[in-house]
Structure formats: C-alpha cells, structure tokens
Amino acid sequence: MPSESRSLQIILDVVCILAFPRFSYRREGIILDSSTHADPGRAGFIKKFIPILDFFAEVCGPDCELVLHDLSRPEASIVAIRNGHISGRAVGGTMSGYAPAFVKLVRSGAYTDDMVVHVDKTRDGRILKSHAFFIKDETGELCGMICANHDVSDLVRLHDFLHAKVRDLIGASDDAPAPSMPLDAVLEADSDSNIEDIMDVLIEQASSEMSSPPAEMNPDERARLVSMLKTRHLFSMKGAVAKVADRLGVSEATVYRYLKRERL
User: Fold this and answer.
1) What is the Cα 79 distance to its own chain's centre?
2) pTM recorded for the entire structure
3) Band of the pLDDT at 45, cuts 50, 70, 90?
4) What CATH number was assigned to the domain covering residues 3-151?
5) Is 167 exposed, middle or buried (0-12, 13-18, 19+ CB in 10 A)?
6) Where are the alpha helices (DSSP H) in the chain?
7) Residue 130, class by beta-carbon neighbours within 10 Å (0-12 exposed, 13-18 middle, 19+ buried)?
8) 1 against 86, higher pLDDT
9) Are 111 and 105 in contact (CB under 8 A)?
C-alpha cells in the first residue's frame, strides 16, 4: 500500500476506534462483533459512518467526493454523499453505470484488501483517483463501503499541456509516437491491473457506440474509434496503443498513424 493510502488508512483507523469503541476493528476492514447485534438493523449501522464522511470532506476539500454505500440495497446503495457535484450522484443513487471495472470487482468477490486504490472516469470525462474502504460484517461479508473519489482532471490536463510545450521547445517531430506516460504514474495508482480494467471499459464503451464490432471495422471506422478513445484520454494510459491494436486486429504502427491523422 503506497504512503498516501497508508496515511488514509491510519486516519480512518483512529477515527473509527474513537467513534465506534464497541466494534471489533481489524485489518480486514471494520467488523461487527456480537455486541452490535442490538443495533436496529444493518442500515442503522452503516449510517453511523456519516460523520466520517463529513470529517474527510472537510479534510480533503471540494475536489474529493465522499460516498457511503449500503450494499444490502444495491438499487439505491448511496446513503450519504459529500461533494456529489463531481460525479453528479445523490443520496438514493446506485453504483451501477459508475466505475464499471470496480463494480465488477465487488460483485465478483475477488477483492482481498480492506482498501483498494483504482482509477475511474466519469461520464463527463473527469478522471478520478478513487479509494474504497470495505465495511464487513462478522462473517466477513461485504455490507458497505466508504469511497473517496479525488478529481485529478486538472493534473492530467497540466501534464498534457506541459508535454506539448516541451515538445515545442525541443522541436520534436510530429512523427514521434504519442506520449505513453501512464496515467497511474501521474496519479500514483498502485495496480497495473486496475489500469487494464479501465482501458477495457473505455474501449468497450466506445465500441458500443459504433455500428460494427472492432474486429469487423473498416479503416474509416477504426480511425473514428481511435479518435473517440483519444478524446477520452485512453492514450494517456500505459499500454493503450498495444491494447487498441490488439482489439482492432491491426499493428501498433497503424494505430499511431490514426493518431497522427488526428493531429493534422
């Protein structure tokens, strides 16, 4: 776990121990012990974490969205949200349609850590560095989550701007490959597999807007798909050109040619 995540973990540990002294608290997440069974249902327990959202909203500022999910009601999992303008969601909203790669992870039960750091993208193109903290019952079943989604779109735009300026200053050729600086290097995301998931989702979403599947596209359709993926910042991610080339069944040089056409 990177230092930023470890610091967040320590803060959350301390807050939870002080706020919920009756609860058993272990590294596998927040675990209810038998003394909590008198609580009026799981929903009541989940809502006790709302003050933690207020605490982190104050600490992190307006560019960080804090969301509390009750996973016992997936159709309306959001029980509290702060700075919801970032994703446009509100209380009563759901995880469906948002962060598809992460939703898939939760539904599969493939998670092992009490905190996961991943990269997301909103429908309007905002790039988020997201932390998810799992709240589990005494059997280890996932019952809720606290999610912190930090909008880092400005940082990525700054990276793109500086990259373009440096290219101009050193007189880089337009034939040079598109920048391959990985998004997780900018955001310090700690898992290449999460980047892979996000790339898969972006490619699938863009492909669904086309009339033909990637393997059956003609050259014009392939160029249009590459253009769509470029506007969605896919090519800021490590390995994106190779991933797209594989999906389209073409060489990486062909993808670079489509990208060069975009700059003309």
Assistant:
1) 20
2) 0.50
3) confident
4) 3.30.450.20
5) middle
6) 3-19, 41-47, 50-60, 100-108, 153-170, 183-187, 192-208, 219-231, 240-248, 252-263
7) buried
8) 86
9) yes
**First CA to last CA distance, the chain:** 42
Mean pLDDT on 134-142: 77
Contact 33, 23 (CB under 8 A): yes
- What does the buried/exposed string (b/e) look like for 143-161 if buried means 16 or more CB atoms within 10 Å of the residue's CB? bbbbbbbbbbbeebeebee
- Two tokens, residue 250: 């073409």
Residues of the chain with CATH 3.30.450.20: 3-151
Q: Confirm if 51 and 19 have CB atoms less than 8 A apart.
A: yes
Q: What token pair was written down for 102?
A: 């992460």
pLDDT at 185: 44
Helix axis angle, 192-208 relative to 219-231, nearest 10°?
130
CA distance 242 to 107: 29
What token pair was written down for 210? 């086309």
What is d(CA 251, CA 164) in angstroms, rounded to the nearest whole number? 25
Q: How far is CA 47 from CA 32, 52, 186, 224, 231, in A?
A: 14, 10, 34, 46, 39
